[in-house]
């Protein structure tokens, strides 16, 4: 990612963080203060795949304002959250200072994670909407492998790359328009005033750059980094209204297609492990 892309995306996420941390935003941060056992819907969806993570040392890459991060801590893990947005880290630290959850947060680019945290982790967690902000999967996978202890695992749930290839602005069902394969040196460029959750305010830093990564690219990068793929599950839902007007809300604020259910995957979960020796 060149300096222009990085600076533009950082400004965009600093702006989003301020909006998302407000109590009336779609993140509903107040609920984590009112209910000290509350898990984010994203992590609640992930619990069956995560299993028992009590006492595990975990790092949450691209943690944003920390709602998923503190949820991992509420499952018993010792968690560090990392994000490149200063505003996101500030909001995350403010949130856990109020909730009392024992979570540390570090401000850094994900590619520099190995340089800013000590030791190794039993769990590297990466959640929805993270990989599209990274241009280089091979470099990312190398960082993930470097963070894991022998026997440690990566837990990744992400929007499906086929979903990111759909133009939701075209009516009458899902329509492919954007690249599935990350074969161009140029990212997709966006200019949008709305963020992806409910917010009474508009973005002022409206521009951003994104890269789509196909499943083959993601899996191959992890294999090249020496990890073993243990599971890959595709889901027919995603935790935001990715195609407005075409979707219906389900439990845990997951969204699925109304008229075209089952025609395409909307998210996926991938689990990979670093060999014990």
Explain what this protein looks like in three dimensions.
The chain is of the alpha/beta class and 277 residues long. It has a single domain, classed as Vaccinia Virus protein VP39 (Rossmann fold), CATH 3.40.50.150. Helices cover 30% and strands 23% of the residues. A hairpin with a 5-residue loop joins strand 9 (247-249) and strand 10 (255-257). The two termini are 33 Å apart.
Keywords:
single chain; 277 residues; alpha/beta; Rossmann fold; 7-stranded mixed sheet; two-stranded antiparallel ribbon; 11 strands; globular; SAM-dependent_MTases_sf; Methyltransferase type 12 domain-containing protein
Mean pLDDT: 96
Largest sheet, described in full? 7 strands, mixed
- Give the helix level as a range of percent: 25-40%
Distance between the termini: 33 Å
| Low-pLDDT segments | none
Protein name: Methyltransferase type 12 domain-containing protein
InterPro entries: Methyltransf_12, SAM-dependent_MTases_sf
Domain Methyltransferase type: 60-154
Organism: Cutaneotrichosporon cavernicola
């Amino acid at each position: 990612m060149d300096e222009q892309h990085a600076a533009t995306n950082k400004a965009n996420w600093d702006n989003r963080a301020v909006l998302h941390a407000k109590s009336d935003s779609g993140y509903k941060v107040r609920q984590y203060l009112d209910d000290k056992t509350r898990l984010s819907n994203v992590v609640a969806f992930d619990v069956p795949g995560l299993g028992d993570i009590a006492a595990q040392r975990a790092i949450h890459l691209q943690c944003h304002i920390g709602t998923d991060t503190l949820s991992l801590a509420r499952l018993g893990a010792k968690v560090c959250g990392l994000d490149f947005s200063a505003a996101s880290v500030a909001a995350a630290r403010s949130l856990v200072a109020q909730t009392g959850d024992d979570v540390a947060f570090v401000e850094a680019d994900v590619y520099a994670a190995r340089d800013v945290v000590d030791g190794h982790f039993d769990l590297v967690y990466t959640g929805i909407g993270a990989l599209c902000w990274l241009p280089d999967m091979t470099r990312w996978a190398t960082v993930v492998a470097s963070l894991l202890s022998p026997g440690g695992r990566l837990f990744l749930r992400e929007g499906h790359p086929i979903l990111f290839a759909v133009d939701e602005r075209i009516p009458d069902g899902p329509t492919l328009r954007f690249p599935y394969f990350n074969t161009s040196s140029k990212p997709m460029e966006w200019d949008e005033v709305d963020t992806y959750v409910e917010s009474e305010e508009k973005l002022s830093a409206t521009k951003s750059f994104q890269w789509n990564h196909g499943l083959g690219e993601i899996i191959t990068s992890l294999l090249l980094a020496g990890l073993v793929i243990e599971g890959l599950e595709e889901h027919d839902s995603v935790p935001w209204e990715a195609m407005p007007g075409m979707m219906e809300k389900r439990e845990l604020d997951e969204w699925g297609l109304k008229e075209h259910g089952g025609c395409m995957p909307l998210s996926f979960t991938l689990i990979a492990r670093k060999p014990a020796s």
